[in-house]
Design goal:
Elements: E1 2-9, H1 21-25, H2 27-36, E2 40-43, E3 63-69, H3 72-81, H4 84-88, H5 91-94, E4 103-108, H6 116-129
Antiparallel strand pairs: 1-3, 1-4, 2-3
Length: about 150
């Protein structure tokens, strides 16, 4: 099985505003780092190469990132041991703090490409039921084996 992840965010400013320039201008390089990272399988993107125009929520201001990885370790390595961490540290400059979970991970069969609807359902499941082997965050260390126990 592979690990799918979704995270959503609500920008403080329109993506075309100067306040968002550092974020927007680094989407392509950070996405390239992800795609070149060990354990990377797939990421959601449109014809422009990113997912900022893909709408996933009733709030049209919400932006989305979704990807598939071989395991949690490879996702963590990308997030926290590459240039990505520099932008993660700055997220409060660009995004509102959400009062409910804004990211979720879940196990998928190898070869399956998750849909945006599937991902939103997993996020809603996490928000309602908390951490389970079906939908979880980095706070939990659920493995694919937990799905069968």
């Amino acid at each position: 099985m592979y690990l799918a992840q979704l995270n959503i965010a609500e920008p403080k400013f329109s993506l075309d505003k100067p306040e968002m320039a550092d974020f927007v201008n680094n989407l392509e390089p950070i996405n390239a780092i992800a795609e070149q990272s060990a354990g990377f399988i797939w990421r959601l993107k449109d014809d422009s190469g990113d997912a900022t125009n893909i709408k996933v929520d009733a709030n049209p201001d919400i932006i989305v990132n979704m990807s598939v990885w071989e395991n949690q370790a490879s996702l963590k390595d990308f997030m926290f041991k590459t240039h990505h961490i520099d932008f993660l540290k700055r997220k409060k400059e660009w995004f509102h703090t959400m009062n409910t979970p804004s990211y979720v991970m879940w196990w998928i069969p190898k070869g399956h490409i998750p849909t945006v609807q599937e991902a939103i359902e997993k996020l809603e499941y996490l928000r309602i039921h908390g951490e389970t082997p079906l939908a979880f965050s980095f706070k939990s260390q659920f493995t694919e084996k937990d799905l069968t126990n």
